[in-house]
Amino acid sequence: MLKGFRDFILQGNVVELATAVIIGGAFTAIVTAFSDKIINPLIAAVGGGEGPALSFTIKEGVPETTIDLGAVITAAINFLIVAAIVYFIIIVPMNKLNELRKRGAPEEEVPPTTEDLLGDIREILRTQAATTVGGPAEGPASTAGPFDDTESTDPPRH
């Protein structure tokens, strides 16, 4: 039971996922600092006034009724930054790597169809019938045989 768990944990996808979560957590700190120190001051400069930039209060004196559009814009910018970084640093290289692996891998051999196998069997039976009935046939071997797929002039047997 422990061997199965160990194999599961050491599987490529699980290790990659754990690495991505750890890197994502560390990357969040970078994006938060970028937003707090660069994006928020820019939004505050555009919004102007006292208090949070680009915000308004529905009911004066009740801070819970304040709608802060600047925070929503900051969150959207944070999301776009994280999504772009993840896409260009993780997704694009992984897709390229998978494409290179597929090119290097040999193509899987396509198994023969039932019709191909039956045709091969028919040819083997023709060859055996021509050589075993009276020895090797004189002249060119006849292509007609009991398993020929051409139409017969004999009436059908029931």
From TrEMBL:
GO cellular component: plasma membrane
GO MF annotations, alphabetized: mechanosensitive monoatomic ion channel activity
Superkingdom, natural source: Bacteria
Gene3D superfamilies with a match to the protein in the record: Large-conductance mechanosensitive channel, MscL, domain 1
Keywords recorded for this protein, A-Z: Cell membrane, Ion channel, Ion transport, Membrane, Transmembrane, Transmembrane helix, Transport
Transmembrane domains' residue ranges: 12-34, 69-92
InterPro entries documented for this protein: MS_channel, MSC/AndL, MscL_channel
Main localisation: membrane
Signal peptide start-end: none
Membrane topology: Multi-pass membrane protein
Keyword Transport in annotation: yes
Annotated spans, Disordered: 129-158
UniProt-annotated location(s): Cell membrane; Membrane
Family, similarity comment: Belongs to the MscL family.
HAMAP family listed in its UniProt record: MscL
Assembly and oligomerization: Homopentamer.
Listed NCBIfam families: mscL
Protein name, per record: Large-conductance mechanosensitive channel
